[in-house]
Specification:
Layout lengths: L9 H14 L28 H4 L8 E3 L2 H10 L3 E6 L4 H11 L2 H10 L1 E6 L4 H15 L6 E5 L5 E5 L4 H17 L1 H19 L10 H12 L18 H14 L2 H16 L13 E2 L7 E2 L2 E2 H18 L2 H18 L9 E2 L2 E2 L2 E2 L7 H7 L2 H11 L19 H6 L5 H19 L7 E2 L2 E2 H18 L2 H17 L8 E5 L2 E5 L2 H18 L2 H14 L36 H14 L12 H21 L5 H12 L5 E4 L4 E9 L7 E10 L4 E3 L12 E4 L6 E7 L5 E5 L3 E7 L1 E10 L12 E6 L11 E6 L1
Parallel strand pairs: 1-3, 2-3
Antiparallel strand pairs: 2-4, 4-5, 6-7, 8-9, 9-12, 10-11, 13-14, 14-15, 16-17, 17-18, 18-24, 19-23, 20-25, 21-24, 22-23, 25-26
Helix pairs in contact: 5-7, 6-8, 10-11, 10-12, 10-24, 12-13, 12-18, 18-19, 18-20, 19-20, 20-21, 20-22, 21-22, 22-23, 22-24
Length: about 775
């Protein structure tokens, strides 16, 4: 046994080597320490894990432990501090620190001598990552990965940072070791203060209040004032997509026709899709841009970015009808199905930024490389469009980016637009085939339930709007896979699937995300089996409910290793707030509760009260920090103002309305036609137009009060299905079961704006049965 691994006994090494042999070929042995036959010199406990990130470190000379009781017991028994390193498999700077420090024998000796070292995959344990990231931000004022924390044996952090260069890291290890030996009481005092601060931040209780919509609107306007008008998005660098904000603004525009918000959305989405953060050759988005121009990303691709930005571009297409958004949406979803879809269903979680030891090498091009594979006309075409030069724009290479709107470039060419797009797509397909011959970045093959569920939602809704069965089929296949693979007989979920095995107890985001996916599938397919599954999933999701406060815990009650706090944080992060997701699911189940099966009757009356209680619990936080709570705000708006999807439910599902275009209101078209399909539950009816008295409201369709660009030409109401007597002298014509309306709109003389290719409509209806008439309802749609 080599010196850095003297803490591993012979029996353990035999076990680890046996596991190495079993897993050989299923992971990459990332180490420079090999013998003359190419065999790894070092091995540690991470070889027993199923996380691709942990396996990247299985052959470091560091005596790594996975997170769990064994590591902390060793720290206490040996009176050593814990070094906790948190990252993820596709993180560029995690790889840098791995090579520079964790595969460095001298640094490994320091770690093995003076510390108990733990590696943790943040994607497996987002609840733990949140706790320690909060500690890093408290101690340093910033955060990021790799996250480097020093802990007591009970898990409380006393010092932390992110990436450290090797010399700085070695000096830090010496300093922490000396402080541990000489000033341990001071470190414990520091850890106690940090722990109290973490607990306060993640479980801060704000006084219950009503939602202050005016304050939320004011905060949103202030955020819009920070816009980068030149490139889109919020000003500054690094630059993140800010999907929770985009999705909240899209909902607002659906409801209010706010042109200021629409303008921000259009510039942000266009800026990202024109920049290097978007893979112009293969489709899909990188995680974020390092600069203010959306040009130079860190090149990892995360599944959650594809689902969240895919949903944003889908909703933008519905609102703006801009062909560029449609193109980017399809390219992104096609990328996911081509490169991120698992054969048996579900989706891989991410791909790396690096290949062949270099960041971005796979995605970038030298001028010479392009000159070798393209003819002169093709190279000139691509160079003019994507800003390609001999000097490059990224370390001597070229990141493709659009320096002008694609539509403008196409219009300025001598050929017809269709021919230009065909030429462009043919060249991009050629470059894609050539790029595929390069060594690929690492793909993280694990399925994460919450991330895959977000992709199901986007594919489902896109499949309906775009009438693309491939997307809907992929969504259903993934939903069935998770149901059959990651769920046990008690409807509890395991968060991770990899290589035929599931692991890690599900988090709130997994349950809520999957429930939302099932609800989306129900809305689009009208197959109640998806809704019934959603009801069952919510029953187990409620195990995360804090019965005392009405809030929701983010992590499960039972955890291995220290649990410093059980967070109830409701704010958004890189992914949508789990609290916001579960609120949205409760709202949706309440709106559809009449359609749930009998076994859900015990829960159905609770949905509304659970929403009201949870809203009261988070209202203080929302009012204080609205821009951190966009997903929660969207769910509350759905509860208080109605949903914004093209499928709506009235009176808890007694009526279902689905709106779709027959001919799109796009471009210079002067006429458009849409259809409204209404399904009624048995024993309920609507009054047909022309037969109502002042006591009843007939079914009507009209343009919304904010519509400026389209006027309603005609509505084709079907003949009444039957008649019923009302009183001694009145007979009412009624609709039962299902109704189909057709409406024709004509463009007005109003000048074009961002929303001139979508139409706002109102459907007014009043549901009655033989005993009562419920209050009249108005459903607002913009599509």
């Amino acid at each position: 046994m080599s010196e850095p691994l003297i803490q591993i006994d012979n029996d353990l090494e035999v076990r680890l080597r046996r596991e190495e042999k079993r897993k050989r070929g299923s992971y990459v042995e990332r180490t420079d320490h090999l013998d003359e036959k190419g065999r790894t010199l070092f091995i540690n406990r991470l070889i027993l894990e199923d996380s691709p990130y942990l396996l990247q470190h299985a052959h470091n000379p560091v005596n790594w432990y996975p997170w769990g009781e064994e590591a902390f017991a060793a720290a206490c028994a040996e009176n050593k501090p814990v070094f906790l390193s948190i990252g993820y498999s596709t993180c560029h700077w995690c790889h840098v620190m791995e090579v520079e420090s964790f595969d460095n024998v001298d640094i490994a000796k320091q770690l093995n001598r003076d510390f108990i070292s733990i590696k943790l995959d943040r994607e497996q344990y987002p609840d733990l990552d949140e706790v320690y990231m909060t500690g890093v931000q408290l101690m340093t004022g910033q955060g990021g990965w790799p996250m480097s924390s020093f802990l007591l044996g009970d898990g409380r952090p006393f010092y932390a940072g992110t990436y450290f260069p090797p010399q700085s890291f070695a000096s830090l290890l010496n300093a922490v070791s000396a402080a541990w030996n000489e000033k341990q009481d001071e470190l414990r005092e520091s850890a106690a203060k940090v722990h109290r601060a973490i607990e306060h931040i993640l479980n801060e209780k704000a006084e219950a209040d009503v939602i202050q919509w005016e304050a939320i609107e004011e905060a949103t306007k202030l955020a819009l004032n920070r816009e980068d008008k030149a490139y889109g998005g919020l000003a500054g660098a690094p630059k993140f997509p800010q999907e929770p904000l985009l999705l909240a603004l899209l909902d607002d525009v659906h409801r209010s026709r706010d042109l200021e918000k629409a303008g921000f959305l259009g510039r942000a989405l266009d800026g990202m899709a024109r920049g290097g953060i978007y893979d112009q050759v293969g489709g899909g988005f990188h995680r974020y841009s390092t600069d203010a121009q959306w040009l130079a990303p860190h090149f990892e691709k995360m599944l959650y970015n594809q689902s969240q930005l895919g949903l944003a571009f889908l909703q933008a297409w519905v609102l703006f009808k801009k062909p560029f958004h449609h193109r980017v949406l399809r390219q992104t979803l096609d990328y996911v199905l081509r490169e991120m879809q698992q054969p048996d269903g579900g989706f891989y979680s991410a791909t790396d930024a690096d290949s062949e030891g270099e960041e971005g090498l796979f995605f970038t091009w030298t001028h010479a490389e392009l000159n070798e594979v393209l003819d002169e006309d093709e190279l000139g075409f691509i160079s003019a469009l994507y800003n390609v030069s001999e000097s490059g724009n990224f370390e001597g290479r070229n990141i493709f980016n659009l320096t002008q709107p694609l539509e403008n470039f196409v219009q300025n060419q001598e050929q017809a637009s269709d021919a230009i797009y065909q030429r462009l797509d043919a060249i991009l397909a050629k470059l894609y085939r050539i790029r595929e011959q390069r060594p690929h970045p690492l793909r993280d093959d694990k399925l994460i339930v919450s991330w895959a569920s977000g992709m199901i939602v986007t594919l489902t809704r896109a499949g309906a709007v775009l009438e693309e069965t491939r997307y809907l089929d992929a969504a259903m296949k993934a939903a069935d896979f998770i149901w059959n693979t990651n769920r046990d007989e008690q409807d509890h979920f395991r968060r991770i699937y990899l290589d035929g095995a599931v692991s890690i107890a599900g988090q709130l985001e997994d349950y809520a995300g999957y429930c939302q996916a099932l609800l989306a599938l129900f809305d689009v397919s009208n197959d109640v089996s998806w809704l019934h599954r959603a009801g069952r999933v919510m029953n187990t999701t409620l195990e995360f409910l804090d019965e005392d406060t009405g809030e929701f815990f983010l992590g499960p009650a039972q955890a291995s290793g220290p649990q410093l706090t059980r967070s109830r944080n409701s704010s958004d992060g890189a992914t949508l707030s789990p609290v916001g997701l579960v609120l949205d699911c409760l709202v949706a189940l309440y709106h559809r509760s009449q359609l749930l099966p009998a076994e859900n009757e015990a829960q159905t009356p609770r949905y509304k009260s659970l929403v009201e209680r949870a809203v009261a619990a988070v209202s203080g936080k929302v009012n204080e920090q609205p821009l951190s709570h966009n997903t929660v705000i969207r769910a509350i708006a759905n509860f208080q103002h109605g949903e914004v999807e093209p499928v709506r439910y009235v009176e808890q599902g007694r009526a279902r309305l689905a709106v779709s275009w027959l001919t799109l209101p796009a471009g210079a078209s002067h006429q458009a036609e849409l259809a409204v399909h209404i399904d009624l539950e048995p024993d309920w009816h609507l009054v047909a137009p022309g037969s109502a008295t002042g006591e009843f409201n007939p079914l009507t369709l009209s343009t919304s009060s904010t519509e400026e660009h389209w006027q309603l030409d005609s509505v084709d109401y079907p003949d009444a299905h039957s008649e019923i007597a009302h009183g001694e002298a009145t007979t009412l014509a009624i609709y039962e079961s299902s109704i189909d309306l057709r409406a024709v709109f004509t463009r007005t003389a109003a000048g074009p704006d961002l929303l001139s290719n979508s139409v706002g409509i109102e459907v007014r209806l009043q549901l009655c049965d033989n005993n009562q008439c419920l209050p009249p309802q108005v459903c607002l749609f913009r599509l």
